[in-house]
Design brief:
2 copies of one chain form a homodimer. By secondary structure, chain A is α/β, with parallel strands linked by helices. Helices cover 45% and strands 15% of the residues of chain A. Chain A starts with 7 loop residues before the first helix and ends in a 7-residue tail after the last strand. The first copy, chain A, binds a DNA duplex through α2 and α4.
Chain lengths: 337, 337
DNA sequence: TTGAAAGCGCTAACAG
DNA sequence: CTGTTAGCGCTTTCAA
């Protein structure tokens, strides 16, 4: 029964008129007589005709596809952002093609090349943690294809981007600790070449200075962003002669790594030590006590990124802009004495 | 500087030969002289030529796109499956277009229609929880387009599918409880029109009978698959004259809902009550004590679904098959007395 | 060994 | 008001 998609030609021959008449009738061209228009549209509906997007694409040189590259699409953070992008894209009749860089520069470069080959009309991406130079983005910039970066961004003078206020996030956490009466506030930082990490570390120090606490280097430890390594960093903190009474992780992973180390150490939260970090509601409320956390507006990040994308698609000559979204501190049991 | 993608025509005119010569040279056609072939390929490489997939698609009537429909792409479970599908698709030079049905039949039907309009070569999907009839799948079946269902499946006599052994999952949990010495084993079930729920409930009863425990109806409660409702169901269990000493949730959500209710009730796990359910490693190890859980081979589900898809694409007349993947019980602290 | 021409499905300029 | 034609980028017969 295998029936193929039908074409204008099929409709035309069935109605014994020319293809162009059918084409015009379908888009209500004023040149076509009302009766003909009605007849054509009726048949099209009956036969369930839909135009072939490949033919249209070839003609108009547009694929209606947006390439999306993320370090990893399984993480809640990124999948939620993707969902935001998809939401906007769908409204505009665009589709997205998702590729994962797995945080590898090499893979990221391949993704860009592949997407370009598929003739996507542009790319929305978050850089891999390995990416420090941007030769692979050149072709996009040269061809003036819309490019929007989010979360992990770069070249902000050339490329539009969406970020969250990372510095504010950690500053808010540290101030919150202080207001709750904690005075020995530690920070588990991460790979310092990442802009995001730098910002969050800055926010921590900013708050420490702001409230007039001593700037103690030993309360600032680093990890390589794995749970394992964050747990080790936490253990180092706990072994200090005067261990901290509050700790903030630099990322989702770092925070939960710290949490595990604290549990293993047998300390009670939030009495002996307070914990806070980055997590969505679901994860924050899964642990006991519930985790005080910074909530990222992931869906909005995606939505904004897509919005910037279409802005640029429609107006390629406009200056790049950066949208900074605010995060939200949600105090929960892990830091309420 | 906006340079467009170049075409065979561009190469041809630069070399002052015909388009067809270039076309043939690029695919090492034997008719073309070795020198010409070399010259053409050298230029193509230098100019970074890549064929226009739209033109190819139009010609061959294939888009190299697979539609993927999931109830929700943010959940770890589905995003991980998608990642498995994508992995295989990429290997074969295919792209996937992801749509979310948000567990709505109406949306699901729209997704199918949209994807069909885009001329995807087939669809891989998990049905929405509302979907009980399948008129929207007719066009796919009629046109003999490859269709593969996973997790939530139907029409298995007409359509290939990938499922996990749900009955075994809950059976394993209940047997595990029994082996650990628990005797009052409860089950929080869910919307009973779902095949998956039925299977899991069956597995529970099967184990109860197998070990010779009394089949107590009051240990079998239902929820509507939200955390809230699962927590309420759990509270109902706890209010029984003889409350259970072990409980298994029918799903990820139900399990964590139960867990919360137990915590609120102040019971200690695993001494006063054991808990087990469905969760990936990350979530199972986030809670204390770590949760005994059934681990789903999500990536493999995606991989298998894609494999079946391509099998069908290459051999449309073959009989539909069903792949049943095994789950893995990972015992952790929440059920070890 | 190479080129010319048709055709995949569609639109739009140009004729009639 | 409707039809003819060219062309988007590519492959593939058929001719030379």
């Amino acid at each position: 029964m295998k029936k193929k998609h039908l074409s204008l030609k099929d409709l035309a021959s069935e109605l014994k008129v020319s293809i162009s008449t059918v084409s015009r009738a379908l888009k209500n061209h004023p040149d076509i007589s009302p009766e003909m228009t009605k007849k054509v549209q009726a048949l099209a509906r009956k036969r369930n005709y839909t135009p072939n997007p490949l033919a249209m694409g070839l003609l108009r040189q547009q694929t209606k596809m947006i390439g999306v590259i993320v370090p990893d699409m399984v993480t809640q953070f990124f999948s939620s952002i993707i969902s935001g992008i998809e939401h906007v894209a769908k409204q505009r009749g665009y589709y997205i093609i998702i590729s994962s860089s797995y945080d590898s520069f090499q893979k990221e470069r391949e993704c860009v090349e592949n997407l370009l080959q598929t003739r996507v009309e542009g790319i929305i991406m978050s850089l891999s943690s390995e990416t420090k130079n941007f030769p692979h983005l050149r072709p996009l910039i040269d061809r003036e294809l819309p490019l929007v970066l989010f979360d992990r961004v770069a070249l902000t003078d050339k490329v539009s981007s969406v970020v969250v206020n990372d510095r504010e996030s950690t500053r808010k956490i540290a101030l919150h600790f202080y207001n709750q009466g904690y005075r020995r506030i530690a920070f588990i930082s991460g790979a310092s070449h990442l802009q995001m990490v730098k910002e969050r570390a800055n926010g921590y120090w900013e708050a420490i200075r702001e409230v007039g606490l001593p700037e103690k280097k030993e309360y600032f430890v680093e990890c390589n962003m794995t749970q394992q390594s964050a747990a080790q960093a936490m253990m180092k903190l706990l072994r200090l002669p005067e261990p901290p009474d509050a700790v903030c992780g630099v990322s989702h992973t770092a925070t939960f790594g710290a949490l595990k180390a604290i549990r293993n150490g047998g300390l009670t939260i939030p009495n002996e030590i307070a914990v806070a970090g980055f997590a969505d509601q679901f994860h924050a409320e899964l642990v006991t006590p519930n985790l005080t956390s910074i909530h990222h507006p992931t869906f909005e990040i995606g939505r904004e990124a897509a919005r910037l994308f279409f802005e640029r698609l429609e107006n390629p000559s406009e200056m790049p802009v950066q949208v900074v979204l605010n995060t939200q501190l949600v105090p929960r049991g892990s830091s309420l004495k």
